[in-house]
Design brief:
six-stranded mixed β-sheet, alpha/beta, elongated
Length: 218
Amino acid sequence: MMRMILVSVAALTLLGACSNGEKTARYLIDPPLSGERVPDRLGTAELKDVSLPEYASGDEVSWQTGDGAVRSNTKELWADNPQRAFTQTLARTISDLSGATVIAEPWPLAEPPRRRLEVRVEKALAQADGVYRLSGRYFVADDVAGGANQARSFDISVPLATDAGPGAIARAQSQAIAQLARQIAVLGGPGRSVRTSSPPMPRMDDIFSQPLPPLEDS
């Protein structure tokens, strides 16, 4: 009987330790405010959910160790879903920088956006060499005849603090997102611009929303 009581007490103690929220650290993505302003090159744009590598889309903060492996700790977590946080933060930062109306999907306004923005991240990692690397490509689609479509790449490096802990990684990622936001806002980076050669096909809801012509006299 005494043994069963001791086992129960031990199990409850272990459960309490595992559920202790104070032992789990959560980190925010929060780019610094620079106060810089750039011209509005986007107008209204819907930002698709940012595509992240699998290691960067999980709840745990990841980093690369000297052996090249990407590791993480179950006690060091992002405060929000990484894809959602990255997407929302990028949209807000572009808007704050340029005055453009960039909103993460789904588009909430009655007037549709002029452009669609898509970001595909290929690397988002605190590397073993002491640098946070954010690289990939972004695309701006403009369906209006004569509109400029952009296909450009980005490769951003932010030095990590000496401690290189999860807090330093979160700060470096926030700075990298701020730099990416500026690059997108000015449509910068290696790549090309392609003009839309023909007007878009009308949507079904636009067709049926038009008034019917008057009936001719019989």
